[in-house]
């Protein structure tokens, strides 16, 4: 441990909107950074009707096992769904594929915590991509469209994004 202030499994941290997160795995730190950004946007920035929250990250190691490195995996809140569908259609046209997953309440149950509002990962970890999206979605409201693109893959033209 680098210092006594280092985050470690079992800790509960508080976000800027006072939601609490139980740290199960310290290797899932990227999603905590994105949550900070989402909450900052929602709490502090002036928003217009045409704004969208779009986060693009490599959050999980299982994207390639889902898509065989042929696509990124995406999700959205209900307000961002039409925009995500447009992105999927554009990707299909240029053969840079985006595949959509649906965030369901049953996935959120996998992140339930006895000591915090939510866990940062489920112990099972077999559905890492879905769990990461579900975790992020917990912090988003439907006031703004939100899209998450998990791009832990290489595309057809061999560019790695």
Describe the protein.
The protein has 161 residues and is of the alpha/beta class. Helix content is 32%, strand content 17%. It contains 5 helices and 7 strands; from the N terminus they run ββαβαβαβαβαβ. Strands 3-7-4-5 form a 4-stranded mixed sheet, sandwiched between helices. α3 links the parallel β4 and β5. The longest helix has 16 residues. The radius of gyration is 16 Å and the shape is globular. The model has no long low-confidence stretch (mean pLDDT 87).
List keywords for this structure.
3-stranded mixed beta sheet; alpha/beta; single chain; 161 residues; 17% strand
Choose one word for the global shape: globular
Q: Sheet with the most strands? A: 4 strands, mixed
Write out the strand line-up for the largest beta sheet, numbering strands in chain order: 3-7-4-5
How many helices? The count is 5
By secondary-structure content and strand pairing, the structural class works out as alpha/beta
What's the count of strands? 7
Gyration radius from CA atoms, angstroms: 16 Å
Summarize model confidence as the mean pLDDT.
Answer: 87
Order of helices and strands: EEHEHEHEHEHE
Binned, the helix content reads 25-40%
Which band does the percent of strand residues land in?
15-25%
Uncertain runs:
none
Our measurement of the CA-to-CA distance between the termini, rounded to an integer number of angstroms, reads: 32 Å
Blueprint (SSEs and pairs):
Elements: E1 12-14, E2 20-22, H1 29-44, E3 53-57, H2 63-67, E4 71-76, H3 81-94, E5 97-100, H4 105-109, E6 118-119, H5 128-138, E7 146-150
Parallel strand pairs: 2-6, 3-7, 4-5
Antiparallel strand pairs: 1-2, 4-7
């Amino acid at each position: 441990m680098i210092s006594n202030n280092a985050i470690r499994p079992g800790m509960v941290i508080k976000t800027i909107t006072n939601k609490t997160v139980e740290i199960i795995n310290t290797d899932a730190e990227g999603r905590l950074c994105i949550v900070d950004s989402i909450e900052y946007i929602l709490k502090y920035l002036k928003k217009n009707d045409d704004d969208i929250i779009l986060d693009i990250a490599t959050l999980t190691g299982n994207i390639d096992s889902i898509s065989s490195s042929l696509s990124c995996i995406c999700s959205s809140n209900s307000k961002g769904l039409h925009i995500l569908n447009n992105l999927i259609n554009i990707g299909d046209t240029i053969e840079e594929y985006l595949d959509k997953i649906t965030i369901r309440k049953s996935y959120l149950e996998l992140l339930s915590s006895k000591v915090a509002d939510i866990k940062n990962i489920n112990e099972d970890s077999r559905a890492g991509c879905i769990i990461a999206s579900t975790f992020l979605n917990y912090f988003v409201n439907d006031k703004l469209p939100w899209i998450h693109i998990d791009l832990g893959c290489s595309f057809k033209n061999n560019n790695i994004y």
